[in-house]
Amino acid sequence: MSVQPGWYVDPADPETRRYWDGEGWIGAPIPVDATPPEGPPPVEAPPPAPVPQPVTSPGAPPAPAPPGAPASAPPAVPGSAPPAAGPPPGWQPPPGYGHPGLPPGWTPPGWAARMPEPRPHGLPLAGLGARLIARLIDFGIVLALNVVVNGWFVWRLVQEMAPYWREVFRRAMAGNSSTEGLPQIGEQAGGLQVAILLIATALWLAYEVPTMASSGQTFGKRVMGIRAVPLTADQPLGFGRALRRWNTLGLPTLLWYCCGLGLLLQLIDAISPLFDHPLRQALHDKRAQTVVVQVPRHTPTATRSEPPGDTP
After folding, report:
1. Per-residue model confidence as pLDDT tens digits over 12-57
2. RDD domain spans which residues (predicted)?
3. Which residue intervals of the chain are DSSP H helices?
4. Strands 25-31 and 6-10: what pairing?
5. In the chain, what are the domain boundaries?
6. Which of the residues 98, 142, 143, 312 could staple to 106 if both were Cys, CB 3.0 to 4.6 A apart?
7. pLDDT interval class at 288 (50, 70, 90)
8. How far apart are CA 3 and CA 25, in angstroms?
9. What is the rounded average pLDDT for all residues in the chain?
10. Dihedral of the CA atoms 203, 208, 210, 216 (nearest 10)?
């Protein structure tokens, strides 16, 4: 994943902003609330070449420094402590934290120090526990909708399959493993299963996609104070991005009919943030290029404003 060139909040110092050229940080930082200039920063002049010192014989007085040359450090006094080691004037940290083409804040392999956690658009990443509870709340709402809309179809499916499973259970209790003479499952059972899955998928889509497109929050996310935002800018997802995000998790519902294959795919998607660093993106987040952040409780979502070009 590559990030477009532009001015972004420095992950190492959220109070400053630097220019990301697609491969690394360039130029000097500026305050985060300052208006960044158009385009990249001006190229800094290279440092002056060191002036060669003339060789003098022992005991001879030092030669005068040429005009414009920096003053040399005073000689050390015997018995005094050496000067404290520190970065030279104008020193800047190495540009970027990752390999070329990777987003700011990416920890390079072998980096000894623990890198600061990314703060997309100045907001902390949402915790995995909060995301799980929000998803369970949303599942409960979608299940309640299915009870209302899909209840009759489920009741008819149970009626079609009840004679078969009642006889299987009776034989199992009696220790009879024979399958001969079992009642046939109703002819409408297959069609009812497909109808139930289609309705359940449509209800989930209608519940989640419009709200995510407009605000990045379902009811569960709003309760837990978290929100999904694009990596590129702090703005609404829009219908297309919200639909792509939902497709990866919601469409496999149609495959529940295939020996639970859809449920397995959804389980893999659900646990994928545990193995993604540093942005904790699920597979549906990666497809839609989104990230889930914690929204400050004291700042309303509709009135919060951020400086343009925050860290992706």
Report:
1. 777 888 888 777 778 788 887 878 887 787 766 666 666 666 655 5
2. 125-288
3. 128-149, 151-173, 189-215, 219-224, 238-250, 261-271, 283-288
4. unpaired
5. 1-36, 128-294
6. 98
7. very high
8. 12
9. 78
10. 180
